[in-house]
Design goal:
With 252 residues, the protein is mainly alpha-helical. Helices cover 75% and strands 0% of the residues.
Length: 252
């Protein structure tokens, strides 16, 4: 009986691997909450969260979530923060425009619907851009283009990602009676679980352009079909010219 119990609780058992991954999700989620308190760093925190999830999924799940979160945060801070600040500014500007259109009424309401449509497009780009940024290194404009490519490649996947990123937050905001429970779930593992789902859905397409990795998620060789240098690699920086040439070979 004792031997069976030890085997069940062993780190290499199914239960042990599951608990290890749960610990990684919880650890990364805590880091995401802490690093998102300054609102301007929330974008970089979200990219770092995806960095941890992709690293875990590409290896056998045994990684240090705190160390990997910091690596993802540091490597993507500049690009993610620039995009996030611009997005916040556009959101504030769009909110002011919608308020103005509602007050004016009449033909101005059509402009309000156009703003809503632009907001949906911005949301789709953002939800696909952060995992794309976590996996690949390139300019912001090219990353946005690649994010749109992955978005339209599988529309059903996009709908699933949108649903699990929006509906739980909407439920949290509207259900006042259950808000304490929802808050506990978000703080403990909610954001990490949503990021894990998104990473799981996107990774099969990402893998086509990524080099193979070892059991710890570290790159073991360069692939000839690699489009960009993945962010998991901490060695051999590529020049902008090399990355652009690789994009042209892919035809993107």
């Amino acid at each position: 009986m004792g031997e069976m119990l030890r085997g069940f609780l062993d780190n290499d058992s199914t239960f042990g691997r599951l608990m290890t991954r749960c610990g990684i999700v919880i650890g990364a989620n805590i880091m995401f909450i802490l690093f998102s308190f300054p609102v301007v760093t929330a974008g970089a925190s979200y990219v770092a969260l995806y960095h941890v999830m992709l690293k875990m999924l590409r290896g056998d799940g045994v990684i240090n979530p705190f160390k990997q979160f910091w690596i993802g945060f540091k490597n993507n801070f500049k690009q993610a923060t620039i995009y996030w600040v611009v997005l916040l500014a556009l959101f504030i500007f769009g909110y002011m425009d919608v308020t103005f259109c509602r007050q004016m009424g009449g033909v101005w309401e059509y402009f309000m619907y156009a703003i809503y449509a632009l907001g949906i497009v911005a949301l789709i780009i953002t939800l696909l851009l952060f995992p794309t940024m976590a996996a690949f290194a390139d300019t912001i404009l090219h990353l946005i283009r690649n994010a749109l490519f992955f978005a339209v490649k599988k529309p059903f996947r996009l709908l699933v990602i949108l649903f699990f990123n929006i509906f739980p937050l909407y439920l949290t905001y509207t259900d006042a009676q259950m808000q304490p429970l929802y808050a506990f779930l978000w703080v403990s593992f909610g954001f990490g679980a949503v990021a894990l789902l998104g990473a799981t859905l996107l990774l099969p397409d990402f893998k086509v352009y990524l080099p193979p990795v070892d059991e710890y998620g570290n790159i073991i060789s360069e692939s000839e079909t690699e489009v960009h240098k993945p962010k998991e690699s901490e060695n051999h920086e590529k020049t902008e010219t090399q990355r652009l040439e690789e994009m042209k070979k892919l035809g993107m």
